[in-house]
Amino acid sequence: MPSGALRLRDDFDRHWLRWALLAWLLIAAWFLATRWGMIYWLALGDTDDNMRLMQVRALLDGQGWYDLRQYRLDPPGGFNIHWSRLVDLPIAGMILLLQPLLGTAMAEKIACGIAPLLPLGVVVTAMSLAVRRLVAPLAWPITVALMLGCTSTMLMFAPLRIDHHGWQLACLAVTVAGMADPRRARGGATVGLSSALSLTIGLELLPYCAAAGAIVTLRWIWDGEEARRMRTYGLTLASGSAFGFAVFGSYDNMAMRCDALTPVWLSAMIAAGGLLFAMSLPRIARRWLRLVMAAAAGAFIAGAFASVFPQCVGGRLEGVSPELEETWLNNVREARPIFRVPLRNALPISVLPAIGLIGALVAFWRARRTPAAVGWAAVALFTLFASAMLMWQVRAGPAAQMLSLPGATALLWIIVPWCMRQRWMLVRVIGVVAAFMIVSGLFVAYVIKWLPIDLPTGRSPVVAKANSNCQRFWAMKPLEKLPSATMFTQVDLGPRLITLTHHNAVAGPYHRNGQAILDVHHAFTGKPQDFRPIAARHHAEYVLICVNMAETTVYRARNPHGFYAQLHRGIVPDWLTPVELPEKTPFKLWRIDYDAPAAPPADQ
Fold first, then answer.
1. What pLDDT shows up at residue 604?
2. What is the DSSP letter of 77?
3. Structural domain for 489, as ranges
4. Rounded distance, CA 264 to CA 268, Å?
């Protein structure tokens, strides 16, 4: 090998962190350049991204640190939001930093563009470190390249994706790096702290945190020398969770609820961490005895949790009513299992996790007689768990793809050198390209385009256009001419309405406020004469609808003769006064007259 290549190879090894961060900066620059138009128009496409910005605005406007209620949804009481302040900090910090230079509006846009890229830097670093520990010191560039093909994962870090999922994925990546750490105390502390941080942000990755704890315990059961790893894990999990709750828990999260780091889960984390710490102190030589102790501790935690917090056992952690679960929560697309998702969408999500699991198992088998076998066993179990989570909810896709990276990297680290040893250059080139396309799962994205499966219906473009147009700045801007008021509109439109205008909304898709969500559903699907009493309870002055938005198609399907269906057909009661909007608007707007007599609808 030429001396220049040797020096570069040595530099990639010794200064890998510098090169990994450079790769992250290049990816971030590409993201910012390609999505600058969306950043400029503050095109926050997801309801949670809009709500995150509103939460930051409220903090900067003086709302209390522990008060996370959103008072512009269903005023005056506001909406109970189950998040924490932790993810608000980098966004708020950038706004405060840029505000004197760019003004508030532009500072918000830049902050929302850059903030999601920060956890991406953590992921690039942590996954590169994990692969260096498991595969080879020079394998990390393959991991970074493979990461670009993790379409579901990378969407969580795209500019404007300011919700907390990117930071939770970053915590998960740090957990993987901790599992692969050969230094037991440091590895246990890394897993414990990253799990505590993830739980402080939200419970979406609670199953992964539980799996990580189980794997740490299994390592101790198998090898008593792993006691130091389990000891620091238990200590940091308990203390980190307590710190996160004390500093970032909201007033509303002081209640005994099951959907956030409340006293319920804080008690469980402290008890679990304390038991693991206590079990690690004595030196227990017999493996079967360690197994019995771990089983007894697990049974105690499960039994105590079920007896003290029965409301969190046997049902959904959200704690919603059966009606809301049936009509809303069970129908959220990302909450469906992968086998209930159209194959055209399911294949690109699930192929890479399957390949990564195969790679992790192969790597474990090859390393079975080396110290790396324990690390690969942990990663293989974690990858298997993440893949299985897809059978529960498709929203596990980003985590499953990211956790497949070590296994996929190991496969390429085996296949590519084999290809390069072949005699013919054409075979070497085509072999390497084909190996990358197959192992990365990118070939599916090209193949799926030509398969006649799950093709979109003729109605899909109409709904997609409405979903897009009604979220845009130009569509919302005319509403600013009206005095500030509470508008009765679709649940999924509420967060965007309060972000881009000075108006309030009745509801948003946040499960702790189930009655308001049900009121919107009942009002739009029920009889026209029942609408005004519901709207009056929420102090609504206007009715705003986005014609053909996905949510409205559900209203029409549930009751073709309901209030929204009649508005869609142009049957408007006398107590609604049309409000003029620009000609190309996707909205229809009426002022509610509570004093007008109620006349029977024309089609009844």
1. 44
2. T
3. 462-592
4. 7
